[in-house]
Amino acid sequence: MRIRIEELHLVGTSRRIRFERGMNAVTGAMSGGKTATISCLRALLGADVSVVPELRGRTMAGTVLIGDRRFRIVRPLVTTTTAKVDIAEIGGQEEAWRLPASELQAGYDHTFRDWLLDRLGLPRIKVPRAPTDQTSPLVPVTASDYLMYCVLRQKEIDASVFGTADNHAKNIKRRYVFEILYGIHDPESTGLRERLREVSTELKALTADSVTLERLLAETAFGSQAQLEVQRTATETKLRAARTADQQLTSELTDPSTVTLRSRIADAESELARIDMATAAESAAVANLRELHDQLIAQSRRLTRALVAERLLNDFEFHTCPRCGSGIPERGDDHTCRLCLQTPPQTAAPSSLASEQDRVIEQVSETKQLIERSTKRIEELQTARAGHARLRSDLGAQLDRATSAFVSDQTDRIRATAAEQARLEERLISLEQALSLYERSQKQARRIAELEQEQESLNASIDASRHSNPAVQERLRKLDEAFETILRAFDTPRFEEPAGTYISRKTYLPIVDGRSFSDLGSQGVEVLVNVAHVLAHQLVALRDNSIPLPNILIIDGLSNNVGHEGIDLERLRKMYTTLLSAALQHIDDLQIIVADNDPPPISGVHRALKLSDTNRLVPEATAGQEAPDTEIDQSGDSS
């Protein structure tokens, strides 16, 4: 993705630095502020703020081209991770954002670094903090981590590759970024890595639990599984003997005489229960009969009143109106009431009422007889119950006397047998629990073996995907070729008996004629190798759109320890020439910014800023007047 810095402005001062396409240079004395300028550029690209004291607390603004969109970014030069960064698009959609620098806050969906990731089209990936420990916490790969491959800082240009010598965490991120850029950490292996993380987490927990369990067993009396099994067998044998002795005592307690007594007691109790049920049934019958008796008496009384009314009120006629006292004229006929002119209802003949009265009186008499019979039956049942209750009491007393003598004679034996049985049962439970711990340990061991096998298989699959992908191998081959070509273009000193120059497939560090970076032995050679290494990444990414490396290269201290005389000066010119050639060849896609003490030893490099002891990065304003902006003449030199 193309990214180009077009302008950097220190707000509140007249310092405004304009950068062009191609290759730009910031030059000047050691104390002028070149490294501070590079720090401001890095902060503009999402790095943590790290500037000289005179810049702290100030605000910088910059214009940055990302892809085909141009943005104005304003960021305070403070170390606070939640300091707000203002972003506004110039032209286009003219969107605007205000985001915390690198630490997410409530009310914000993402940070300035996340915004850069999205604009640069870089994948958002979380990786284990420790590559060798898949259970370690996951940390995000930030825009600053990706831009690590785009910035070669002065303090590492002749000491290490991207700060790997003294920064372990940065070295881990360097390796992850390499794998992401070149497709080694591909989406297909992400699922394998996630499963590997789950397996490693479970394996770590199970291993720790297994070790704790083994230590616990070793420090107790249950240190030997074989001994526990022997003790369990012996305890089970003793427990069976104790239970047999208990059964013998029980059989002795149930001799024929006591068995007969118990049987008779059971019969007596059964008869008592039967009597109680019969008594309850008779009592319920008496209650129902008494209720029926009362109902029949009431019915008999009603019939008596009806008979009397029929006898006294028969053929009664109204000749005077009972309401007004007027005489009632002759009307109606023999079948109609003279008063209401309606047909009177049919009434039972006196003979029918009399026969009903006789039937009810007969039922009352029968009911009384039934009540008396049931009452007598209840009295008989109660008498029988009292007799059976006395019999049950006598039988219980006989059984108590029969068993008390046996129990008193066998008290110690019974107590000892019960105590021994309880002790053996408790011992057996304890042994079973201890053996269950061994069983659990064995299950854990089997599970650990399964997880270790799966872990090994997953690692093999991941390694296979890392090194068997033809596209990945082709990218790495081109990186090796570009690295070798640039080293030759720099006329880098080589070593006798070369064993190959390439990028290590294990450490992703440059190897020069079989020597690792730390074994080069010359700071000047390390500078040449480091610059060749970082430029090789850019050239390969420019030729392969599948490598998402941002296309910008910032180098601080380009001529450090290279020398400025003789063959060293010639090598410095070749290094500048190679960088300029790459920038011009990809002038629309690659911007190179270098900082050096001396002016470039070749022409064609845009002098973006020339600093000195009197013209420092933060200009000193005269009384009532700010220092003028740096102007660039047509030749590219500062004026």
TrEMBL record:
Native organism taxonomy: Bacteria, Bacillati, Actinomycetota, Actinomycetes, Kitasatosporales
Record keywords, A-Z: Coiled coil, Plasmid
Regions annotated as coiled coil: 414-468
InterPro entries: P-loop_NTPase
Ranges annotated as biased composition (Acidic residues): 628-639
Region described as Disordered: 618-639
Protein name: Rad50/SbcC-type AAA domain-containing protein
